[in-house]
Structures are given as structure tokens and as C-alpha cells.
């Protein structure tokens, strides 16, 4: 039993003849007759009264007409769902990211995606920076949004695509003397330790690496490495150092006594990327990721 048989049956009932049904189905009468014969053979009962001058349904035909419409509707709905999965418009995607990095712009992007992909279940989970690459590699998540400098050692099966660029935020206590300066320069950063993510010991943006070299050459205090964003904010709140973070993360997680300052001579960007494992690509995921990149940069 297939949907073509259902369609032929309902078109015959709707238009009153095999010939009219064939016309509306853009086929010939013999094809329609064959489909109905196959259907009746499978059911073991005739659906139409063959000895009547007027096309009439048998009792079995009436039951098939009543019940078959819902069956055909559900079959068509099932086909639609499967097709949506094949093109990435249905199913489930789990996207990981370090901490809560999604800001207002990205939340608007997600709302747009959920409008365009209403049947797609999007789940976002927060991971430690050093966990993101492994989660993508192992297939624990379908994709990840992370910082480029945290992806220097990813295996070759991991695909990395540029997502968007974010500005750098230097955060200090709101009563720090740097808040009152009209112009903050790199040398002003030498007065206190830098507060960095612990994972940054292994991989930092190039400008942070340069700062660490300069600080080391001048024999200033060692950086403070923290396990998470909350610890970084606490260190800055206690006036123990100057934090360096993506501006998006700072804006997304404001703190009462923390202020972001501009530093002259540093216009470097924090580059975000999207990762996925080419060995674990779900149907339509690549086109979905392309749509994400398009929205993030629009």
C-alpha cells in the first residue's frame, strides 16, 4: 500500500470517475485503474461497485474513505518531517560554548533561527573552555561556538569556520585609578597582575601573549589564572588585577563594581568560531551553520 494508491482513490471519489481522476493527477486512466486494483487486492475487498452506471463506493470503500483521509494526512506529515530533518529544519542540535557567551545580538539570532526552523530543537549548553574541543570530537555535542585561540590543537576531523569578531574588554574595579584616566596605555597595565582564564596558559590570543612577554621582561607580577568567569570577576572585584575578556561576555554578565576600560594601542579582536566534527555531521547541519554565520554577521 502506497500513497499513490490513496491519492488515486480520493481523486476518483472527489471527481466522480477514473478518467477525471487521471486528468487531475496528470497521468492516464490505465495507471489509475492499476493502482486501485492493487489497493483492492491488498485490502481483499472491492472499494467501488463495478456493476453500477454511477460510480459508487462499497461498504469497504466508505470505511476506507472515512479512515483513509487521516492515514494519508499522517503519512504526508511524516514525509514532511523526514524531509525537514534531511535539510536540517527538524530534529535536534546540541551546541556547546565556553561559559555563557551569548549576548543580546546572538539571542536575537537564535530567535530568528527558531522562527525559520520551528521544528528544530536547539539546545545550548555551557562548558569549560578546555572541554569544548573534546565534546565536539567525541560527538557529545553537535557543534560549538568558541574562541579561536582555544582551538589551536583540534584534530583534523574537526571543521572550524569563522563566526564573528568581538572587541576586547579590559575590566577593572570601578574605583581603580585607571577608571579616572582619560587615556589608558599598555604601560598602565603593568601596575597590576593580569587576570586570565586558566586555559589561557596553553593558548592565548596573540596580543595577550605579547603582554605576558612584556610583563615578564619587566619582571612584573605573575598573571592570576582562574578556572571560570565568576572567579575572574571576584579577583577584579577584590582589586587584585586587571581582567581581559571578550566584550560580549562582559556585557552579557554585568557586575555592579566592575567597569570596562579602553586601552590605547590595543585594537585586537577576540575571534569566535564554530566547530563541528565532519565524522558526526547530521543532515542539513552544514547549511544550518552557514545560516548562523550569515545572521551573526548581518
TrEMBL record:
UniProt keywords (A-Z) are:
DNA-binding, Transcription, Transcription regulation
Domain HTH lysR-type: start-end pairs: 1-58
One GO molecular-function entry: DNA binding
Annotated TM spans:
none
> What SUPFAM superfamilies does the record point to?
Periplasmic binding protein-like II, Winged helix' DNA-binding domain
Q: Which GO terms describe its cellular component?
A: cytosol
Q: Which residues form the signal peptide?
A: none
Q: Per its UniProt record, what Gene3D superfamilies does this chain match? A: Periplasmic binding protein-like II, Winged helix-like DNA-binding domain superfamily/Winged helix DNA-binding domain
Q: Known Pfam families for this protein?
A: HTH_1, LysR_substrate
What the record says about family reads:
Belongs to the LysR transcriptional regulatory family.
Q: Mind telling me what this protein is named?
A: LysR family transcriptional regulator
